[in-house]
Fold this protein.
Amino acid sequence: MIRSMETRIRGATAICGLAAVALLLLASAGQARGATDVYPAGGGTFSGGAQGWQVTDASCNAPTFCTAEGGYDGANGNPPGSIAANTTIALNLVTLFKSTVTVQSPDFTAASAGDGTLHLDRQFVSGSLVDLAPQASYDVTLIDRTAGTKSEPLTEELKETSAFVGKDHAVTVKPGHVYALSITTETSSTVAGTGLAGGTTSVRFDNVSLSAQTPGGNGGGSGGKGGSGGNGISDARLLSLLQASSGGIAVLKGKRLFVKRPCPAKVGRSCRLSIQGLLQKRKPATTRRTAKVAKGKAKTLVLKVKPKARAKLLTRKRLLFKQTVKAGKAKATVYMRLKLIRR
């Protein structure tokens, strides 16, 4: 009897020991996943100001008739607030123009080495210079001040768009190195001026950020909203993933609006998603709808159009939406303008 009891105790002790080891392994795996840091601090949302970004160059080939400038644009963005590269042409321009504007972020220090993601939302608007058929392109440069080197992770030719469209590209950073992001925009005409057309064309950037995965710890990223919430993803990383998947359409059928929204697979778990259509940032156009969406999947949410907004939706080409997503304890909100289709 006593020997049997001792055998049981030793067996139970062994099981508890194995369980403890398993828990330690799980905890170590959770720490190994690390957290996501977002640079520069604040994530380049440009909400309320330029957040330390500065214009380092602005020039045009015909300075008498062409003005190039850059700076904060509080009226436009995703949501409103962006950094812009503007080219203004005088009425008496009778030649081709070409302007260059460079804006640069404040310096930031990478916490550790690793692969990261460069994200930005961009918009190109010809304005009243559409007759000159302007074209635009931009280059993003990652400046490594510590090593004294530069890399160009992203370059793109733009097509005119009324909405801000997201773009992502892979980057790599080194631990302890000081970096800065620089964006150079080139705008030019393909049709010579006749002296009768004047106005401004703009290229705007919003939500410019570099997200880098750190190898350990559950700490948050720069900017005060980086807590991982114990689920392997930070608020800042969730925001970056939502910004990257902010495109799409909304279909209006009578009094209902159908919006299909995804839960990015990289979130790593299901999303609790809430969305509402807006006439303006604080003026609802629809009811709010909440749904649970599995990771890597998408779900169509049906919103009821408010009676006072129905007539306005019939004339709009795009509609502003506020989308809030929770994944575990991580939470992020994005504003996006979706193409409005009527059926």
